[in-house]
Amino acid sequence: MTEPPASAAPHLRRLLDLLADDAPAEALGAVSSQARADGVAPGDLAEVERATATALRIRGALRQHRRRELQLTALFDTAGDLAASRDLDAVLKAIVRRARMLLGTDTAYLTLPDEEAGDTYMRVTDGSVSVVFQRLRLELGHGLGGLVAQTARPYATPDYRTDERFHHTPNINAGVLDEGLVAILGVPLLLGSSRGGTGKVIGVLFAADRAARVFSPDEVALLCSLAAHAAIAIDTARALADTRSALDELAVTNAELAEANAAVREHSAAMRRAEESHDRLTDLVLRGREVKDVAAAVAGLLDSPLTIHDPGGRPLAAVRPDGTDFTPDAMDAGWLAETAEESRTGARAVHRDGRWICAVLAGRELLAGLVLHRDGRLDDSDRRLYERAAVVTGLLLLLRRTVAETENRVRGELITDLLTGADRDPEGLAERGRRLGVDLDRPHLLLVAEVAEGGARERLAPAAVRYLFGGDVHGVSAEHAGSVVLLTTADGTATAAGDAARAAAERLGQLAQTPVTVAAAGPGGGVRELVRAHQEATRCLNAMRVLGRTGEGACVEELGFLGVVLGNAQDVDGFVASALGPLLEYDARRGTQLVRTLGAYFGSGGSLVRAKDELHVHVNTVVQRLDRVQALLGPDWNEPGRALELQLALRLHLLTGGRRTGGRKR
């Protein structure tokens, strides 16, 4: 008697146990092999293999999220060291050590200029084994560090020895060769100068490997954040040194000494206030608070209303000094970008039109703009506090983006499976969506977005994540079949689909910095209805592409019957030229209005009287023009079938802006 096939349930439970224990990928992959060896039925075995693949993806997403958390925790620890320590050497060593740890490089080091010697030297190294390298002194402008210092920009090279972008010298090459370094990333330590000046590079922070390596944008942004902390530490230490020097040089009368003591007390109080404020802001980050909480804290400390705007000018938070919210006017994106660029270049807050603006950066990317609504000046301590608030805001925004991207990646796989395999297990997809916080049975709008041919297609998917997690629209997105699909909650009517498509096209175009075309369908609920909505939105997108409506948003209902006709990308140019070509050529050559007359005739239901009123001509003129139409198109032009074809061609010609001016005769 044949034994029944083994059950798949124990193996599925085994996958969950392994995920809970953070087991290695090999252990997860072995589950399907064990199920096959145990004789699980083919259908159940396929389900175990799919579950294994899903478990591996979840494990990868969780490990990436934990790595991001470790990175941000290290940044917060660095901020705490900066606030608590007065030992510059200890703080810089901690920063260099954490740079090496977070980027996983073989070495990390920091160079500072020696103004007396006219060169730069190794201030701190971590992981270095070469005495030659540790004692290396660099001439100004030479090597990768010289390029970073000259441009005030981060630079990375996968192979230092073959990179010709910077000036190689024998002593630098000897030090790098003795240390065995190959891949190097360097970022500037920027410190603002006097008002109206430019940012000053006071050093360079490096991370390097002894093998070829390409540094990712996230790694560059992380090292830039650490460099910002190092610049603050150096600036603070110099300020304290200046204070001590001023005290040492004071050999004055009692009155002058009293005045100096008052200045010292005032400076100490300002430093203490700055430290307490920085501790308070750091605590907000460590407690996982929102951008609005940072805005409220800074508005209270500086006793002025504060708004935080995204790069497109939309407000993310707006708080008065008493902690109450208010509704600010939308910031002009061009003005904000121009002023934020000035703030980024000078590495300082700038004053424009009765407001103080400070750029919130991740590397060279503008994440947001802090706007302090205050016409009066900021003293040095308040200005320093304001600029530190921008660093904290950047950390929060990077954390939110990391979490949003991780969540959207996991949930986006649900959309991919919905569009590729909904018929296999619709109930399972719905249940899986509920576990991920996406109720597929609720009404949703489905949007399909694409960039024009030759556009920056790689920017669209990240822009969709920022669109869904950075405003009033909530949902999930995924890349599918060369476009990006967005599933957003909705309770409106079909007309709301067109409004949503237009709003998405405008916002995604701003975020991706390229025209984005969006088609929408719905609202609809349920797995099968959402699949039909995707098919409808795809047809609508095809129709918009044919009509040349790049960079716009629409739904099928707004296109009318043309959406159905053009949904499969028919040859509109050929159709219009075939139907109206002789009339278009005649009008272009003679300056007549045969096409307009034919449209007015059909539009008036074949009435010569109503047609002549619309055209503002005599009825005999209409008759003469229609005779010419018959001579050009043939005696059957007004037969029902031919008339329908001509009316459709006229409508297409009108919708496409009358751009077609010729064609072939029938």
Task: Report on this structure.
This protein is α+β, with helices and mostly antiparallel strands. The protein has 23 helices and 16 strands. Strands 3-2-1-6-5-4 form a six-stranded antiparallel beta sheet, sandwiched between helices. Strands 8-7-11-10-9 form a five-stranded antiparallel beta sheet. A five-stranded mixed beta sheet has the order 13-14-12-15-16. Strand 7 and strand 8 form a beta hairpin. Helix 2 packs antiparallel against helix 3 and helix 4 packs antiparallel against helix 8. It starts with 8 loop residues before the first helix and ends in an 11-residue tail after the last helix. The C terminus is likely disordered.
